[in-house]
Structures are given as structure tokens and as C-alpha cells.
Design a protein that fits this description.
The structure is a homotetramer. Chain A is mostly helical. Chain A has a single domain, classed as Up-down Bundle (Glycerol uptake facilitator protein). Chain A is built from ten helices and no strands. Chains A, B, C, D: This is Aquaporin family protein. Chains A, B, C, D: It is found in: Membrane. Chains A, B, C, D: It holds the Pfam family MIP.
Chain lengths: ~260, ~260, ~260, ~260
């Protein structure tokens, strides 16, 4: 790619990361209208949850081995999440996750092109609504009752620690990539991360409050009991803060403007 | 790549997506002769079905676990489909699928370089003929009777919904990537999508009328009873329409000429 | 990449594919000395066979499910083959396979920079010797007798058809990619192809006379009875011819010099 | 990418590989402060071991099939290691491994920008400390006792041969890629290599003294008995030497300055 390709980032860059050699503001100027961005967040989160829940149902119907079920579930999620970020990143940033939206607002809050409060107020409900729609769609595709509260308790303390680690890792990855101008790798990187986190965290890495809420609506493999939601969502928010702290530790506190100038 | 590499797209771009800064028509001028393109569609669809059917037979011969069978079947398809699109995309666009051919014609119908009726009339029979040939080849490689109608009934209502979702997702992906000038990622994106859709849709995502017809010719793991074909094919066409509607919703109704100008 | 990066191909291009706009001969001028290229073919083929044989042994020691054994065996081969082509392609072209070497000589025979008879006479023994060394190394790593003839009979007629298809597909892929100047994708494409071919061909896709010979030296999962070798090797040569015929059918008989001019 | 992108390497290049056409020293000038690099090595090695150990625990809790356990364990490691190299390579070079750090110092010892003794003295303790922290974190996430010496004996002679091969292959890959200026592929190449080496080496490829030490602290699937550590670590150092010898054999003894000039 020539340097004129630089704006073709796959996930929205906070404005602080924009090459100062470019005229200020173009990222904002080219941002699609809010309606399209919200539609992308809704559709993307819905399809993500449909993949997570649907592949879990398919796997439990085909094999009694729970390890194999999680393997199928995790690989389907890797494939599905990767293409959703690739496809919808250029529209909305492909957050599909309130923690990512909040962290994006936080890191870009002192810059002209960062997310505004109005964006957050539109993104988060779209993510939650999409997640619920995706769970219902998955249940419908497999002939299940459309809404049935999950009875899968996930409240043990070590699961909560797992959820902090899972979310911290996700935020560390996304905003660390942004620091080094590598967000074009986000589709494969974020999908791979989730593929690992399904296995290495005890909570199987929800790492996403919207997806967690959606997964409460289905009493299948990927479900979560509504009473376990507050703990998971709280730990995900904590994990987001830990993740941003790790970014500051490893990549430095300052914006990467200085570095961008050499790239 | 330099900007002069732009024509090296991996999947044929509808002419509406061509950078207006280029002289009009080059994509058409460099399109290989129809004979080669039809050969590519025939060979590509044949190999795709040989992969789908053959890996299903191999898997059922090696393990009794149906979950593991689908895992092997889906991973083999991801690997095979990805390289077929990479290899044959520059020749024919690597559709291998009448729904994709029809959607490509529809989205390019008002532009000079779009698919003509003559192209469709040549592509679709090549796809169907290739699919049948691929199923017969797979049966031959495994010492099965060359043609044996499948007895695998796939007519339940929720499977039909799964098939709508599967095809809508495929069309949303391909034509959404085209809108943002990202078709160079089609080999890995489309293959990954199918890898996810095998698992998250209840129908295991045929999403392709030609492949569905070919799979009726083999009474093995991946087969489909001929009487289930009309339902599947009808739902795939419905899914194609839903997919184009999703593209319009998320990416906008207008062609991406305006945007192409900045890339 | 800028156009000055063009020589950085991952697999040696037959000279017929070199951009005529470049001064003739540079690919030849930069080709590493024959000793290094032969070392690369020996080491690469040895490691390839060590991966194939070793992962087969590991899998059979860990699980009784033959489907799972082939899944582990095939995934390990995808990972291993991909990086061997990436690493050694810039040295020797990363053939590791007499059929590929012969097909490369054939397609480049009327051009100045093609493989010479002397190259073939050095490559093929290195490939065969490396394959044997790799099988012995794998046996040694797992505490097996270093050489023990395989008793795994693979002479059934439908397996031979599978081997023709496997090798034809491999040659179609490699030389088709070359026709469209896409050999930079060879590491992931060839590895993915083998990942699919393990499953969709009845022979589990040896597709390589040197590797077949090496696999005769180990009486483990991936072995082949010496008496089955002539049939396999003969069919692989037939497959190579079929593959080149497919390339001519789909990509045209002429060299791609004409097309290279526009890229 | 334009040639001005050259400094954006994913893993630190030994200075000998820097294009002499560039002003000398910029790689050094842009190297992040030692504190950040050490933090990256600590965090990266900790997360790597958390992935290896955590996914091993998860797998053994979900399935009784040891083959499936290793498959999940290896795939999670591929995903996790790949993104850690992608993310942290631009900071510290993403060694996470004393053998790689030592080999990097050795190959760059006569050049201005190579690793200094001070770097090694900081990197290696960070790697070992991180590995131990990662094992403890994994145990905590799964509700295990935080530290419990592994009882998994790994002292058989053929395992030691496996460990030599595993480490030799790793060093051959990394420093061979560097010779041909291909380190931008390190994230996917090194991760894929480890994915293969889990299976084709009898030792399941620790290939890393720091990780081996960390894995002694957990009595779970991925553990190693402390008494087996000296043998493993010794063989890993031997493997590192063998790997550098292979690089010299296949890629030549001289630095690649001569070649870099043409790229």
C-alpha cells in the first residue's frame, strides 16, 4: 500500500493516533452517518451472539464430549468474529462491546475526533439490543423456545477473576495495537485473542457486557443465569480499567503522535 | 502495493465499485474470455463439492463422533474454499454459487462492466454441472457407488430459517466487502464465514443452490434428499435478497463511487 | 509494497513469469548458490516429513479416535508446511517435492531463467534423502526403532484415484497462482490445500514421491508399505500432468508475459 | 507499504539486517526505553504461560481424551502467542524466551545496534519472573492452589532429543526469516511453528527455558517436574546452537547486508 492508503484503517482510530502530517479531521469527515454506524453495531453484535449461541447448540446436539463442544464453539467464534470486524470495522469501528466503546471514548476524550457522549448513548443500546436479538435468532434457528432464561450459574469467585483477565487482555490488545498503528490487524488479532481466551480463562471469556446480557436469554450451552450477570459485568468493567493501565505501562502514557510522525 | 495494483482484485468487482479516477472499462478489457471463466466456475465448484462431500465421507469412516465429523468437514471446507477463491477469483470471480452470480448481476446491472445475461446463462449451468461432477468424483475416490440419491431429509422449518440466515450472511459479507473496497480479503473472509456458518446455522449452511443440487447425488454425510432441495433453494434465494437489504441498511443505498474517490 | 519489491517473491517464479519491464536475468542473478538451495530442499523436506510422521505418532499415543488422530496430524502439517514454504521459499523455491520440481522445469523450459537439468539432478536426491532423514528423526524423537518398514498397505484402486486428484490439485494450485502472479500467497495456500486434501482425498494426499518414500521407512500412523510405493508415485506423476492440463484449460496456454505487463 | 515503512518491523531486527541505504542507527533511536521493553517481556511471557497452563487446565476439566486436550492446548497457544508477538514485537521484540534473547545478542554482537549485555540482564529475569507469574495467575483463575510443584516427569532421553529439535527449529525459523527480511511474518510464523511442534516433537515443544521454569510451578496438564528442568533447559540451549548452525548452512554465514541492498 502506498502511504495514501493510511486512512483505510479497519477499526476506527481514536483521533489521537492520526498521522499529524495529514490535514486534521478527515477521519471525522469520512465517518459514516450515525444511523449506519448504529445499524452496524446492532447487526454485528446480533450476528456475533448468534454465532456464539448457535454453534454452542449445534455442538451439544452432535457430541457428548464437552471439550469438543467448546472447541467447535470457540473455532466458530474465531471465524465469525474475525469477519464481522473486517466487514463492519470501516463502518462503526466494530466494537460490539460497551467496554470497548467506553475505552475508545476515554482514550480519545481530549481529541477532536473522539467518540462523543451521543455516540456512546447510541452504540451501547444497539449492542445490547443486538445481542438479545442474536440469542433469539439462534434459538429460532434450532427450534428452541425463543426466550428462556439461562440456568447456567457462573458466580464462582475464580470465574470472576477469569472475567477480569479476559477483558483486560482484550482492551490491552486493541488499544495497544492502536498505539503502534497496527489496528489493520484487528480482525485476525481480536478473533485469535477470543479463541485463546475461551480456553485459558476459567470464565470462557465473555469479556463483553452486551454479549453477556444476550446470553442470559437462552438456556443453552453458551447461556448465563441472569443472577450471574451483575458479577460478570462488574468484572468486565474492572478488566477494562486494568487493560488501559497495562497499555500505559507497556506503551507509555503519551499519545503516539510522536511516533506516528515516522511511519 | 502501489495504486497501479488496484485492478489485481481477488474477486471480480462490480463495475460500480471501480475507482472513477481510472479510465473506464479496464476491468472489462482484462476480463478473461468467457470460456476460461466458465471453466473456472465448473472446476472450482466441482472441487468445492469434492471437498465438502469427500471430507464428510473420510470423517464418517474414521470416527463415530458426529461433532468431530462436522469439525473435520468444516475445517477441510474452510481450507479448500479459501484457496479456490484465491486461485480462481482472478479468472471468473470465483462465485461457485448462483445466488452470488445473481446478486453480482443485480448490483452491477446499471453499470457498463456488470455481468450480462449471457454471463449468467453460462455461469449457472457450469456451477450446477460442476457441483454434480464434484459429488461423483468424491464418491469415486472413496469407492462408493458413483450416483446414489441422498436419503438425508432436511425439510424441518427451523432448518429452512437457518438456510435463509446462512445465505443472507454470505451475501451481506461479499457485497459489504465490495462496498468498502475490501474484496481482496474475500478468500479468507468467505472461507471463515462458511467455517462459522457450518456451526451456527441449524442447516449447516449450504447457502448455495448449485452445491445443494450436487449434494443430492451422494448418499453420504453431506448429502441432501432430493425432495428437500426445493425448500433449500427457495430459502437461499430469499436469503440472497435479505443479504442485499442488509448491505443497503448498513452500507447505504448508493454505489460507493463517492467513497472510492478517497482510496 | 512498491513495484521495486516485485523480486521479493516467496516461491521462485519460473522465468516466464518475470515482468518483462525488468531487466532480464535478475531473478537468476539473485538465486542463491546451488549448495544452499540443495541444503534448503534437504532440510525442508526432512522437517516436513518429521512433522507428518511425528505428529502422527504423537496423536496415536494420545487418543484412540482415528478421526481425531487425522485432525491433529493434518493441522500440524498445515502449520509446519506453511512456515517451511515461507522460510525456505526465498532460498530454493521450497519445492520439497519432485513433482513440483519437474513441473517447474517443464513450465520454464523455454525461458532463460528456468530450472536446468543440473538443478533437477540436485534437487530430487536432496528431497528423497531429506524425507528419509525426517522419518528417521521422528522415530528417534519418539523412542521408536529408527527404521522399520511400514506395513500400511495403500494399494486399493480408489486410493490411487485419490492420489491423482491430490497431486493434480496441488500442481493446479501452485502453477495457477504463478500465472496470476500470486505466488506470494503460496505458504498459506499450499498449506491450506494440504489441510483440505488430507480429508477430501481417500489417500489422505501424499501428493509427493519423496515424502512417500520417506514415509515407507516408519511403521507408524503415517507410513506406507514399500510395495504400495510404485502405485502412489506413478499416480502422483499422472496427477502432475493432469494439474498442468488444468492450468492450461483455466488460465490459458500462453505464458503470462502479456498479462504481467499490466501488473 | 512504501519503502519508508521499513522500520515498522514486527520483531526487532538485529542491526546487521538493517538496510544500509538508511541512515545508521534509526532502529536504535526509536527503540522504546528499557523499562517499557522489560515490562513488555514480563507481561508477554506471563500471558503466554497463562495461556499454555490455563488452556491445559480447562481442557482436562472438559474432556477425558488426552489427544483432544493437547489439540485445545495447542490451538489456544497458537492464537495467544501470535497476538502477543504482534502486539509486543514493536516494543521489546517479543522474545519471551532467553534462548531467543541470547541468539539475538549473538547474531548482532558485532553491530552497533545489537542487544547489549545490559539488555540481556534485564530481559532474562523479566521472562523468568513473568513465566512464574503467568503460571500462578492460571492456577488462580481456575481455583487451584497458587503454587504446587509439578509431578510430571519429563526426563526420558527421547524427550530431550525432542526438545533439541523443537528449539533448533524455532531459532532456525526466527533467524532465517530475519536473513531474508521477513520478520514481519513472525507473529503468524512463530505461532504456527509452535502449533506444529506441540505435535511433532515428543516433548510437546517447550523450547523456552523461562516458560519451562514457569511450568514447574503448576501441577496441571502443562506442568514439568522441577527435577526435569535442568535436562530441558540444557537441551534448549543446545537446540539454539543447532538452530544458528542451520541458519548458517542454509542462508549463508555472512550478514544479509548485501542482499538488503536490493530490497
Amino acid at each position: 500500500m502506498t502511504s495514501t492508503d493510511a486512512p483505510e484503517v479497519i477499526v476506527d482510530q481514536p483521533a489521537a493516533h492520526v498521522d499529524p502530517a495529514l490535514p486534521p479531521g478527515p477521519a471525522v469527515a469520512h465517518r459514516p452517518p450515525l444511523f449506519q454506524r448504529v445499524a452496524a453495531e446492532f447487526v454485528g453484535t446480533a450476528l456475533l451472539v448468534a454465532v456464539v449461541v448457535g454453534s454452542g447448540i449445534q455442538a451439544t446436539e452432535l457430541t457428548p464430549d464437552v471439550g469438543l463442544e467448546l472447541l467447535a464453539n470457540s473455532l466458530a467464534t474465531v471465524f465469525g468474529l474475525g469477519i464481522l470486524i473486517l466487514l463492519l470495522g470501516p463502518v462503526s469501528g466494530a466494537h460490539f462491546n460497551p467496554v470497548v466503546t467506553l475505552a475508545d471514548w476515554w482514550t480519545g476524550r481530549r481529541t477532536e475526533g473522539g467518540l462523543a457522549a451521543r455516540d456512546i448513548a447510541a452504540y451501547v443500546p444497539a449492542q445490547v439490543g443486538g445481542a438479545i436479538a442474536g440469542a433469539v435468532l439462534a434459538d429460532a434457528m434450532f427450534g428452541k423456545q425463543l426466550v428462556q432464561w439461562s440456568t447456567h450459574d457462573r458466580s464462582a469467585g475464580h470465574l470472576l477473576l477469569g472475567e477480569v483477565v479476559a477483558t483486560a487482555g482484550l482492551v490491552f490488545l486493541i488499544f495497544g495495537l492502536a498505539k503502534k498503528d497496527q489496528l489493520r490487524f484487528a480482525p485476525v488479532a481480536v478473533a485469535s485473542y477470543i479463541g485463546a481466551a475461551y480456553w485459558f480463562t476459567s470464565s470462557t471469556s465473555f469479556a463483553n457486557p452486551a454479549v453477556a446480557i444476550g446470553r442470559a436469554f437462552t438456556n443453552t450451552f453458551a447461556g448465563i443465569k441472569p443472577s450471574s450477570l451483575p458479577g460478570f459485568i462488574g468484572m468486565e468493567l474492572v478488566g477494562g480499567v486494568v487493560g488501559l493501565a497495562l497499555v500505559a505501562l507497556v506503551f507509555g502514557y503519551r499519545s503516539n503522535n510522536g511516533e506516528a510522525g515516522r511511519e
